[in-house]
Design a protein that fits this description.
Hist_DNA-bd; two-stranded antiparallel sheet; HU Protein, Chain A; DNA-binding; 3 helices; alpha+beta; 3-stranded antiparallel beta sheet; single chain
Length: 96
Amino acid sequence: MKHKGLVAAVASKLNQPESEVDRMLEATVEILKSQLVAGNVVSFQGFGSFEFKRKEERLSVHPATQVRTLIPPKQVVNFRQSTTLKVKLKDILRHE
């Protein structure tokens, strides 16, 4: 689902205009970004949590040529699903 689809789905569920839902979603995303950049974990009960992590530099070896390459450090957003979501997804996959 993309941004427009999410806005339309939320607007339909809440019986609100899409323009208002779009404005609220944009504000929510900005708050989430600022919290992650500040080093805070953002959690949604029943869904999961997002965390900003720094990966240290590491040595990588190409399996075919054995050439070693130093991979520089980088910052990533990590998502960890909640147990509730994990169970629901497992149930859905079992029934397919």
